[in-house]
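Z., the sequence and structure:
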Amino acid sequence: MDNNRIVLITGATSGIGEATARLLAKHEFELILCGRRKDRLQNLSDELSQLTKVTTLAFDVRNANDVRTAINSLSEEWKSIDVLINNAGNAHGLSPIQSGS
């Protein structure tokens, strides 16, 4: 990889996560886009790959085993993650951030 920073974004297929991915791609951050919907991940990856390096991981953050498996599947060139934007989820105010699961 280049000297650019690698950013992992969960919930990258819509809303704040997608907007963040678009903004960071314009600034040439290398992106690991994560989400549940493979078709949306692929569409966003195709678009942003014109600006920067992109890889995708499809998983649901509610399943810890799937999260671990996906992260462990990253090739060596993508494993040095500099920034995490942990955006996925629909807590809807069910619990405070410090005590949510």
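The longest strand covers residues 30-35. The domain at 6-86 is CATH 3.40.50.720 (Rossmann fold).

Let me know what you think.
H.
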